[in-house]
Design goal:
Oligomer: single chain
CATH topology of the largest domain: D-Maltodextrin-Binding Protein, domain 2
Distance between the termini: 22 Å
Number of strands: 13
CATH class of the largest domain: Alpha Beta
Order of helices and strands: EEHHEHEEEEEHEHEHEHEHHHHHE
CATH architecture of the largest domain: 3-Layer(aba) Sandwich
Number of helices: 12
Length: about 290
């Protein structure tokens, strides 16, 4: 860790997406007190952030829930910063109508093997029951439209814009998950290095939580800030997308949100895609 003036510099990794930009608006603009810490914002796609977390390169980072077991020894999940889909989530799209059963054996373009969307797709179809190819998340829709895969697994704003490519929704994984479990789908979270120590982890978590709460309380100006990351989305669509993934779940998982994370990880371990995580704990926000 470096010193910046009289503050300790922490690297903060998150996606270059409107929801993450919205979430950290207060910190990025200095409108939320960062206490004795300074934050260097590192903007990269979630697959890259997952890989960097495995190498323990960042102090705090967004991470796919699917990827968390691989880094659990070095990072703890914070109670804030989650991306939860409550009866909605990543979707599978195709050029032509298909049933869920017909997806088996097909080649599906995915945004990364460590994404929670990919784990959920395996839970739905059964591990090994489909072929996949990794494509950058924002290139999947046009690739499917060009016929480069039978279907595509869509995350981020593509969930709202896929019809612009004349594609059809085959299944919403968040709807399926809710029908299966009655829980929201835990897609992403924030994690923080355990080496910072419990007191500092709680303190930093409190600052992150304050930034999220500030953005929600100052929604209009935070959405304006987020628009610079809103790839082909107008303000109304960006605002809708932000509302989907920055909400009360993001401020704090709460009992039901924590239960959802535990259930996702349990099911992933049951099919052998991830190691089991015993006694999962969350860093609570300090003052």
């Amino acid at each position: 860790m470096q010193q910046v003036m009289d503050k300790t510099l922490l690297t903060l990794g998150h996606s270059p997406d409107p929801d993450d930009a919205f979430m950290f608006y207060g910190l990025a603009t200095g409108k939320v007190d960062s206490g004795r810490w300074a934050f260097e914002h590192v903007l990269q796609d979630i697959q890259t952030l997952n890989e960097r977390a495995i190498r323990a390169e960042l102090d705090i980072t967004a991470i796919s829930i699917h990827a968390y077991p691989a880094v659990a020894e070095k990072y703890a999940l914070t109670v804030c910063g989650s991306s939860m889909g409550d009866n909605y989530g990543p979707i599978v799209v195709a050029k032509n109508p298909l049933s869920v059963e017909e997806l088996k054996g097909k080649t599906i373009l995915i945004p990364g093997e460590m994404t929670t969307a990919f784990l959920a797709l395996n839970l739905l179809l059964g591990r090994g029951n489909f072929n996949h190819r990794v494509v950058m998340f924002d290139e999947i829709l046009p690739a499917v439209a060009r016929g480069e895969g039978d279907a595509g697994l869509i995350i981020h704003e593509g969930q709202l814009t896929y019809q612009q490519q004349s594609l059809q929704k085959i299944v919403d994984l968040g709807v399926w998950w809710h029908e299966e479990t009655g829980l929201p789908m835990p897609l992403g979270g924030n994690c923080i290095k355990r080496s910072l120590g419990e007191e500092s982890m709680r303190e930093v978590c409190g600052i992150l939580k304050n930034s999220i709460a500030f953005s929600i309380a100052n929604r209009e100006e935070a959405v304006t800030h987020a628009l610079q990351y809103a790839r082909d989305m107008g303000r109304d669509l960006a605002d809708e997308f932000v509302g989907m993934y920055v909400n009360d779940w993001t401020i704090d998982y709460g009992t039901r949100g924590k239960e959802a994370v535990i259930e996702m990880l349990r099911r992933g371990a049951d099919i052998g895609m991830i190691p089991a995580v015993e006694n999962l704990e969350f860093v609570e926000a300090g003052v």
